[in-house]
Design goal:
Layout lengths: L3 E12 L5 E19 L2 E23 L4 E16 L18 E10 L4 E10 L2 E2 L7 E2 L2 E12 L2 E8 L7 E5 L2 E4 L4 E8 L2
Antiparallel strand pairs: 1-2, 2-3, 3-4, 4-5, 5-6, 6-9, 7-8, 9-10, 10-13, 11-12
Length: about 200
């Protein structure tokens, strides 16, 4: 049978009447059935033998502290577990699935200095993740700082973005046999015109 997913989610959103504050929250449970797993004895063969579930909660808050100062914050906490495994994968029962952090978080703030200039700074964090189903290979948690500056003249805007401002080495993803490094400091400049 094919892989299938069952998702259950309940949430709520509240917006203030003046639009200065928005709060969103949700709780969820996701279950993957007939998960495709690699046969450890024959690495190029996949088995539809696994099942995993993830339960979690998430919350987001966005608002204006002053007319010029905006803040956005988000936090998600989750618990992922392998709930069915067979054959060579049996040792992974009750372990965390590959590349499943127990939390993600972000905080972003921007401030409009005047009608033309706006600046922003933010941080993104991701919890530790495992690179194998035995949970013996681990990528550490990381935090990444990003920044931006925007300058507007009439219908024109120029925005300078700096990703990974402090330039630490980190890994965005981990999979069986390899990991994906995060972007080192990157600077982009974009322009736009509204008409």
């Amino acid at each position: 049978p094919p892989e299938t997913n069952v998702n259950l989610e309940i949430g709520a959103k509240w917006d203030s009447a003046d639009g200065d504050l928005s709060i969103r929250t949700a709780a969820y449970r996701t279950e993957k059935r007939n998960e495709r797993n690699t046969d450890v004895a024959t690495p190029n063969v996949y088995l539809l033998s696994g099942r995993r579930r993830t339960v979690g909660i998430e919350a987001e808050v966005a608002g204006r502290i002053t007319p010029q100062w905006e803040v956005f914050a988000a936090l998600a906490l989750q618990d992922g577990r392998i709930t069915q495994a067979s054959g060579q994968q049996a040792g992974s029962l009750n372990q965390r699935p590959i590349n499943t952090p127990n939390y993600t978080a972000s905080l972003w703030s921007s401030y409009r200095i005047d009608q033309r200039l706006k600046v922003g700074l933010g941080v993104e964090g991701v919890g530790a993740r495992f690179g194998n189903t035995a949970n013996t290979v681990v990528l550490p948690a990381y935090e990444r700082v990003d920044a931006m500056a925007e300058y507007r003249i009439n219908a024109w805007a120029w925005q300078l973005n700096i990703k990974n401002l402090l330039n630490p080495v980190y890994y965005e993803g981990v999979y069986a046999g390899h990991s994906v490094p995060g972007t080192l400091r990157a600077v982009t400049l974009q322009t736009s015109y509204k008409f």
